[in-house]
Write a structure and sequence with these properties.
By secondary structure, the chain is mainly α. Helix content is 70%, strand content 0%. The mean pLDDT is 81.
Length: 153
Amino acid sequence: MKRLIKTRQVIDGLVVTLLGLWLLVYAVNNFLNARVKAPWIMSPYLFPMILAGAAILLGLIILIPALVSAGKSGQDDKGPALRLLDVIVVLCLSILYDIIMRYIGFIPATILLLLSMIAFLGERRVKVLVPIAVLTPVILTLIFKVGLGVRLP
């Protein structure tokens, strides 16, 4: 029997959408039950709500085309296989990042993480690797620490 739904995309879309909904419920619940009442714009739960909205939107962008194309294709789109080694490498890099950041700081540790993670994902062009790895933590620092006055790790 032919599978009519692109199972992998449907599962991915559902997971992202449900995580977004969970984050939205969490943020709104904590905002409403906060001891110190603040307007939405000043609330520490505003950013999680924005992220939740983005996750819901992205999840629906994945989910809806997969469901719409169910009648058009009789083949299942399994996507790339998830390899256990990849998961272990990413987990180890993340743990190492957390440890290293305590000693060398946010910007250098993030540069090293991004260089290693992007290289692990297969990008070998230095003109792509270096600007992304260097500009990302610098821009995040400018936005959060300088612009918003939020302390970074």
